[in-house]
Amino acid sequence: MPDSGISILFEGRNLIRLAQGLWVTAYIAFVSVALSTLLGVLVGLAMSSRFTALRAVMRLYLDAIRIVPVLVLLFLAYFGLGKVFHVNLNAELASILVFTLWGAAEMGDIVRGAVTSLPRHQRESGLSIGLTEGQVYRYVIIPQAVRRLLPGAINLATRMIKTTSLVMLIGVVEVLKVGQQIIEYASLISNPTASFWVYAFILFLYFAICYPISRYAAYLEQKWQS
Prior knowledge:
Elements: H1 14-47, H2 52-67, H3 70-85, H4 91-116, H5 120-128, H6 133-163, H7 175-185, H8 194-225
């Protein structure tokens, strides 16, 4: 008699394996988010700098990251860097490198938008009372910009978490790769709906992580606009 399908989740160590795969996904995502946030602030400040050449370089960086698909960057980092520069990168480190560079560019654009949206006279007023350029950014610009950029930054984090599913294509055994392995070992004759239940469970795991984050971003945006 055909199996109900959902039983595949409870066979052997399948749930534990999926949990371990989710941990790999979360590890890559959150390390990348943390690093890209730090770099993104610097990129964003450079994008809003008075120096035209610096703004042009940062704009080129942002456009290059946006034009090239993330999957191509993953392949380039994992399969290309090692051969060309003799750098020994495992799949997880290559993934973190790519997502950090991608996230820093996107975060930089969010920071730039938040900084440039502030009234110009606030910077001029800070300079007029004797503050240096650095002090103006530290005490006037950045505290106000944080409130404007935080919802967008949180939404970027959810995008990065979801996009980590691509890392399975360079050999990272994350939650989606584990799900595929479980389905491959399941007999399609005795368990014909195994793929549905496995992927549905993975969908639930992504939803459980991303939905609270996205709702928190919406809450902050509504709170600070009121």
